[in-house]
Amino acid sequence: MEIEYLDPQEIEKRSFEIIEEECKKRGIILPKDRAFLIKRVIHTTADFEYADTLYFSEDAVKIAQDLLLQGADIVTDTNMALSGISRKVLSQFGGSLHCYMAEEEVAKEAAERNVTRASVSMEKGMKLQKPVIFAIGNAPTALLKLREFYDAGKMPAFVIGVPVGFVNVEVSKEKIMKTTIPCIVNRGRKGGSNVAAAICNALLYDLKKRIPTSGQE
User: Fold this and answer.
1) Choosing from 43, 87, 98, 124, which is the catalytic residue?
2) What is the pLDDT of residue 216?
3) pLDDT attached to residue 166
4) What is d(CA 7, CA 106) in angstroms, rounded to the nearest whole number?
5) What is d(CA 138, CA 101) in angstroms, rounded to the nearest whole number?
6) 8 Å CB contact between 73 and 128
7) Residue 73 near residue 134, CB atoms below 8 Å
8) Using CB atoms within 10 A of its CB, is residue 103 exposed (0-12), middle (13-18) or buried (19+)?
9) 43 classed as catalytic
């Protein structure tokens, strides 16, 4: 192996070229409508398994991007994901970012009710008076709470379900995939805040490339 000397702005471009080359070597054929998103997740994780494990409900990419064009907000379950999602691009389409996990009132209510802060955060997100994309990269209980809303007849607009870990991770993802909620979910134990952010950014960057906005430079 030899060191590649690249200008900083060329590094990401070269990374995606390598991903495309390796996909060909591995015999991975990505669906055209979602290839840009899967490649960004692979770029974030260096893990080609996501090409097989990412689940998309029917028309998931189109539905998510239509919501973003309508000015949907994004609610996430970690400040890490919050910091990783492009607030600037989201705002160009009229959306805002939210993470309630560190709020004192959320922690207090969760303790009083003996529930997780993630559950309370999802309740707050569902009260927003506009479409919301829930981007979950850490807390299975967030997905379980969203499933409770669905069972009660209150449909979340869109769910990105990619929590990572061992306890209730796989079952929480299955519970979302077994609904009619538009969603992108990673099967199995893998995921994380970085994956949730990567999916959001893939959707946003693709929109920015294709649809001019007044906020673009």
Assistant:
1) 43
2) 44
3) 95
4) 44
5) 11
6) yes
7) no
8) middle
9) yes
Q: Is 27 left (phi over 0), alpha (psi -120 to 50) or beta?
A: left
Q: Evaluate whether 138 touches 164 at the Cβ level (below 8 Å).
A: yes
For the chain, 217 residues long, the average pLDDT of each consecutive 10-residue run is 74 90 94 96 96 97 97 97 96 96 96 97 97 97 98 98 96 98 98 98 95 56
Determine whether 145 is exposed, middle or buried from the number of CB atoms within 10 Å of its CB (0-12, 13-18, 19+): buried
- Kindly give, in sequence order, each residue whose CB lies less than 8 Å from that of residue 130, ignoring residues fewer than 6 positions away: 71, 72, 73
> By 3-state DSSP, what share of the chain in percent is helix, strand and coil, each rounded to 5?
55, 10, 35
Q: Where are the domains of the chain?
A: 53-210
- pLDDT (0 to 100) of residue 213: 59
Tokens describing residue 134: 């829930």
Token readout for 192 is 């994380």
53-210 to CATH, choices 1.10.3720.10, 3.40.50.620, 3.90.70.10, 3.40.50.10230 = 3.40.50.10230
CA angle, residues 101, 107, 108, in degrees to nearest 5: 155
Residue 13: CB partners within 8 Å, gap ≥ 6? none
